Structure formats: C-alpha cells, structure tokens
C-alpha cells in the first residue's frame, strides 16, 4: 500500500520540485518510503505538525492543501463566503505554505487577510479577532528543530480550533483527493481581485497598543535597564523591539548572529528558549555588554526564555519560575496601582507549578486549572467575556514559557511577556534585588516547589505504539507510592476521573478528556505523564515540594529517576 502511494506521488507531486527530488532519492529505501506513507499526518486540535518533505506523513504543499480544503469547507458550513486570517514564521517553506493556504481559501470563496511578512503567532490570534474572521491559520512548528513545520488552525474566538471543529475538518480531509480534490487560484490573481488582502501596518500598531495597555510600569524607571535580546532567527525581532522602545527601554542590544529570519536556525539547532544552547551567543555577548537581563523568543514568538544577572553570573530561569514571579509581580503592581479588578481570576495549566496556588491565596486571586494547551486558557477568557466579566482576567500562564496578560489575544504572547519581564526586572533592580532573590523569598514564605520535565522520544510507528503501551501500563498498574509517600490522588483525564487509591472512590473531573494521567502524593510531590500531541515523545512533568532547598532538589532528582523505570 505504501509503495502504491509512493508511486502515485512520484507521478503527481509536481507543484514543488523539492518533493520530486526527495522521492527519487529514496526509491530503493523501503523504510524511508514506509515512514513517509504509512499514515496521513494527523489533523488534531493543534492542527498539523511534522517533518517537512514528501509523503502523506510529511508537511508539504499537498498536506497543507488537504487541511486547507477541509478548513475551507468548515468555514463555509458556518458562514458561507466568510473570512480567514493567515500568518507565518521564519521556518523553511512557511511563506510557501501560507501562500498555498491563502490561494485555496480564496478559491473556496473565503476572504483572506494575510500578513505581508513573518509575524508572531499571537498576532494571528489578534488579526482573527480584529477582522471578525471565521478562522485563522499560522504556519509554524513553534520551537521544534528546523526539519519541522506546522499548520495551526484557529476559530473565530482567536483560540486554537476546538475538538468539534477539528474533528469536522479531519472528516473532510479524509474525503479530499490529495491531487484532484483541492480548489486553488493563483495567489497574485487573488490579490488583484481583492480576494486576498495584505494586513496593514495600522493593524500591527493596534496590536502593539493593546500590548502596551498591559503595562504595570507606573513610576518605574525603565531607562536604566540594560537588555540583550535574541529573536532566534524568528518573528519576534520587530514587535518585541517595538514594544520595548514604546515603554522607554532604549538600551537593547540585539544578538546579530540570530537577528534575521533563517529557517535553518544555524546558531540554534533546537530554537527553544527553554534550554541553554540558544542562549550561548547571548551569554558570550553579555561578557562585554553586561546586561541586567537576557531575553530569547522562539521562532513564532509565543514563548520567551530569560537569563538574569545574579551575583555576577547569568542564571537561566525556568518557565515555572518566571510564571510564578510574573504572577506575583502583576498582582502586587495592580494592587499598588489601584487597577486590580474585583474578584480577579488567573488561569494556569495542570502541569504548571502549584506554587502559584500559594501566591493566589496570599494575593486574593482565584486560580483556575485547565488542561495543557493555551487554548484552554483562552477559553476561560472567552467564558468571562460572555458573562461581561472579561476585566477579571489578570494573567494566564503555562510551564512551557507561555504567558498572557490581557484579553486582546487568546494565545500565549511573548511580546507582552517580554515587556512585563523587563518591567519586573527594572522594578526589582530599583529595590536592589534580582529575580533570583525575589524567588528565594517566595520559597521561604510558601515552601520550595521545584519542577522539571523529562521527555523521551520514540521515533516511527513502533515508537508511537510504545508510548501507547506506557500510558496503558500507568493506568492498569499505577504507582501507589512516590518516594515513599502514599499516592493519595490519581487524576485520569482520559476517563475524566479523580481516583483515591486507598478506598477506590472516584469523582468526575470537569475538564475535556485528554490522554494525561497524574499521580499526587501525600507530601505534595507529583508526577504527570502526557504523550505529546505534535511529536513522537512522551513527557513527564515532575514536581517536588519540601521545606528546604536541598530536600526539594533531592526529591526532584529521585522523581526523575522514577521516569526511567516507567519507560
């Protein structure tokens, strides 16, 4: 069957010469052919993501075409001759895939608004809401290596597409003939006919206006702050620099080697601000620039990582660290500024540090837990909006370096996060302390909460099967102790049940079903297992809780060892 598909593509895949070259190069490699054709690239609530290349299990103009035809039919089923917005980042073929999608939407009678150059993912969410679109698409694979690209679909609320809509799109995709069933029109012709319209600079400025409204920097001197910023060859370069300039941060040094768009990511093979390697050039630059802060945004500028100067050295901080610090800072500043709403609400994901529950209780803020994925945070903002209480939302965050203050978009936004982080560093600098000092004081007040994530990758079909077996084993033979402490709660989100192991009782979990399971011990330590929805890996989210730093660190190391046994 895979050989038949291969031969069909060899004959029909003519839109992109790179595909034909790749297919010819693997004609005698059965394993390579099988890997490209043994399945279709899956369209889920995160859209598509996969390696760039030829085949049904790859990102290319044909898999993008099928997805866009499916999304077109969904849009037309909701609003005949509706509209969509499109953005793209710096990845290989992102601009090609964006133009391909625009041409297909236009051919299906749907008005297209497209950014004329690469833009951050949150600016796609903004455009959907600004133009009142029925859907949106951003071409990105976020922080994955260069061989990946993706297709993220959004609904009219500016959130990533919900389960019902994505299931509908998938059902249409499954019926679309790859080579004959996709409508298309010449891109330039569609622009001339006003079926495709470039998004103007005025819209970009309005987005930056909304970001700036989230500032809580009243009475903070930002002029003394010294920052190094790297966009990691991605889309954050212009908007991040623009917002920092707007709020008065003029001393910003750009990492020149990583400034311009380059989908090969030559200086950061894994362009992920969660890890140290992408910071290496910035850290070297810091020896001469001596900044207070290093900022790095990922290629689609929805995540931001930081390193801060502390005792003469630059220390990278985790997404949980920064999330807790920003949460505490925003609540404190809005209280001091008199802008805190009545009954404020913040939202975090279930895998994000529970230290924030302590901060929320201290500051008088309601904190809601949602499933992993920022769209669930966006949905909570939407719920508040529908009840006329949108102003109660103060912050949303997840451990994977995603943050959002303000309701102008419904996805994580590294532009607003970069602004707020800079303000926060300047605020505490004026008090003579660093973010490391502030976090230590929070720990001393509420206890130490250390978190880590262990990822295990299993490539190919056999790898996906192995990940499935691990999850099955965790459900059928769950661990009943973590580091000698009894597991008191098992949350099985796939079956929407919270189980108490010692008596077998269970209660319903009022969240959408998701293939995630968590184990919470009596001492507060926890282990959460979750297969990635976009990559061939299983993720373990680990959290240790203790009265001292050394004890907490020891527990976390032991939890990490447990994951090696589980796989």
How would you characterize this protein structure?
With 567 residues, the chain is α/β, with parallel strands linked by helices. The protein is 40% helix and 21% strand. Strands 16, 17, 18, 19, 20, 21, 22 and 23 form an eight-stranded antiparallel β-sheet that branches. The protein has a six-stranded mixed β-sheet with strand order 1-5-4-2-3-6, with helices on both faces. Strands 8-7-9-10-11 form a five-stranded mixed β-sheet, sandwiched between helices. A hairpin with a 3-residue loop joins β14 and β15 (402-404). α4 (61-78) packs across α7 (163-173), α10 packs across α15 (414-430) and α12 (319-337) runs parallel beside α13. The longest helix has 19 residues, at 319-337. The mean pLDDT is 95.
A few lines on this structure:
By secondary structure, this protein is of the alpha/beta class.
Which short descriptors sum up this protein?
single chain, 567 residues, alpha/beta, Alpha-D-Glucose-1,6-Bisphosphate, Chain A, domain 3, TATA-Binding Protein, 8-stranded antiparallel β-sheet, 6-stranded mixed β-sheet, 23 strands
